[in-house]
Specification:
Length: about 90
């Protein structure tokens, strides 16, 4: 079980990006959160098995919605948290 924290920049707000990340996370049984940031980026915390997290990050890099344009993804390793076995869109 690992925890990854992502900061994604580009055209990622107002294009269904968070909803698409939410759907991917549920398909892959990944826990965590996704939220818009004031600077126009999106922040994600992803937690689950290594292979599932790797697959999720690859899908995010491809752009989970056709309207999003990913410019950069900064990835950091975080501490494992209790997300109560869920993935949420937060504010």
């Amino acid at each position: 079980m690992i925890n990854k924290q992502l900061r994604i920049t580009g055209r990622v707000q107002g294009v269904g990006f968070r909803w698409s990340v939410y759907q991917l996370a549920n398909q892959l049984h990944i826990n965590g959160i996704v939220k818009n940031q004031k600077d126009g980026s999106v922040y994600c915390e992803l937690q689950g098995p290594v292979d599932d997290i790797r697959q999720m990050i690859n899908k995010i890099k491809q752009g989970p919605t056709p309207y999003a344009r990913i410019k950069t993804i900064d990835i950091k390793t975080g501490k494992v948290k209790n997300y109560q076995n869920s993935f949420r869109i937060t504010r």
